[in-house]
Amino acid sequence: MENTIKVERAILNITQDDLAKRIGVSRQTINSIEANRYAPSTVLALKLSDVFNKPVNDFFKLSNDD
């Protein structure tokens, strides 16, 4: 899975720590998601959707490996 979380954060001008606090996870979790080392749960993806005010499909995409 690929994502544009880093880009979405830049648009909102927030740090990994800021985003983590908004959705109730650690900064390391955000870092792992951005690096495609961790696929978030549905609940976490929906929390990100609320922060970015966009549908989940706008910032998460399936890759050819999925």
From TrEMBL:
Pfam families linked: HTH_3
Sequence ranges assigned to domain HTH cro/C1-type in this UniProt record: 5-59
Keywords: DNA-binding
CDD domains: HTH_XRE
Domain of life: Bacteria
One term of GO molecular function: DNA binding
Statement: the UniProt record of this protein carries the keyword Transport: no
Protein name: Putative transcriptional regulator
Protein's organism: Winogradskyella sediminis
Source taxonomy: Bacteria, Pseudomonadati, Bacteroidota, Flavobacteriia, Flavobacteriales
